[in-house]
Amino acid sequence: MTTDAVSLPTLPGTSGPSRAFSRSVYAKTLFDNRRVLAVWALATGLLAMAYAGFYPQLTANAADSVPEAMRGFGFDDLTSAAGYLQGAVFGLLVPLLATFYGAATGARMISADEESGYLDLLLAHPISRTQLLLHRIAALATGAVLIATAVLGAMLTVRTSAKLDSVPVAGFTAQAVNLALLALVFGALATAIGAATGKGRATVFGVTAGAGVLAYALHGFAPQTGADWLRHLTPFHYYIGGEPLRNGFQLADVGVLTATTAVLVALGAWRFSRRDIGR
């Protein structure tokens, strides 16, 4: 499998940047989704910054008042900077945003084109189905890295003012890498479902987002039922279970998330290359 550049035709009258980015499926996908990616990155970064900035105002009473049911979501140690960030920032809304980014973007990668009929036009050019899928996954991954970079930049921006200096830069970086990989897992899942089944964009998004929310809930509530082992079945365990903010890079966790993505992409490509896409 390769992701070599595949030239696409450009329409007369299109802008210079559009013609430049139309030289490959990967570049054109990024260009077409540039505004959406910018909004995802900006919104996630600002949300992370806002929640991180609240740490200095946290009191011991507020930390003690956290419901027991929320402790499985990382709210078991709000007194330390790493513990607060693991719960309030990287354990709550930020991973859910990454999950929804993956589901929404992955649903567009193949399903939207097939639904609109544009996929037939794409495949009429010298590009294989596998190449197309790999170019789209590469663009999705670039977006995930952009979001993670925005979050990392936000954390480093408020690190001193929000009294988060006890968390090393390596810890923030490791958590950002895991965030990108989490988004990529669900992006690969959505892309694979669309490529393998030919279902519409809304269906693929709904299935993937639903799976993400269920996995998130399972990871959070499993300790309440005494079934901690169930956490190992969810990508959220490998995203944050190793506490990268405290411990830095956990190569085993990174390996599991990367391998999961590779398996999903391979299965999607295998099925996509064999099924009838005619409607």
UniProtKB/TrEMBL annotation:
What stretches pass through the bilayer? 37-58, 78-101, 137-156, 176-195, 202-222, 254-273
Keyword Membrane in the entry? The reply is yes
This protein's record includes keyword Transmembrane helix? yes
Matching entries from PANTHER family are given as: INTEGRAL MEMBRANE PROTEIN-RELATED (PTHR37305), MEMBRANE PROTEIN (PTHR37305:SF1)
- A Pfam family found in this protein is ABC2_membrane_2
Superkingdom, taxonomy of origin? Bacteria
Q: Which UniProt keywords apply?
A: Membrane, Transmembrane, Transmembrane helix
Q: What is this protein called?
A: ABC transporter permease subunit
Q: Which organism is it from?
A: Streptomyces cinereospinus
